[in-house]
Amino acid sequence: MLALLRFFVSKGRKKIVKRGSFNTFYAKEYRAMLEFYWAPFLVESNSDNPNFHSTKERIVSPERIEAHANHWKDVDYLIFNTYIWWMNNIDIKVRRPNSRYWSDNDEVPRIEVYGRVFKTWSDWLNDNIDHARTSIFFMTISPPHLRIKALAVTTAKFSSPSMAL
Q1: In whole angstroms, what is the distance from residue 109 CA to residue 117 CA?
Q2: 20 to 30 A Cα–Cα from 49, which one of 37, 71, 101, 127?
């Protein structure tokens, strides 16, 4: 989205400010601001540092969202884009509850953890966002077809007609 906006906003009428996990794009002629907040798994993970996030051993805390979610309040639009779920192995490491260390983890099927994270995320949105003020959008990529058979085994457990947001 930022790539599109940067192209259409006149030179000298735009600015990008980078502060840790935040990148803020200002389009002066449109009186608009777009904030990009780095939270690749939506919840806390060992990939949260935008400068040091590349690791094959990704570890998430599926029920810990507040550190990121506090930055999502009081905005007009929330657009979530989390493609990283399908980038590595079928399993993902999950930090044990109440642990302070990323090394204290268990390997769990990725689709199971995905379901847990989406419950945490949707519960947080329902409890903290004024849906009359804020529009929410979500996008991701599909799981790679090479791994679809492995994912299909566990997907049935999490299928439901709808998920309330």
Answers
A1: 13
A2: 127
pTM value is 0.78
Q: Are 13 and 28 in contact (CB under 8 A)?
A: yes
Query: Quick one: DSSP state of residue 54?
Result: -
8 Å CB contact between 97 and 60: no
Question: Would 87 be classed as within a structural domain?
Answer: yes
> How do residues 68-100 score in pLDDT, each as one tens digit?
999 999 899 999 988 788 777 888 999 999 999
- What three-state secondary structure class fits 37? strand
Q: Are residues 80 and 97 in the same domain?
A: yes
In a domain, 74, yes or no: yes
Q: Residue 23: what residue type?
A: N
93 three-state secondary structure: strand
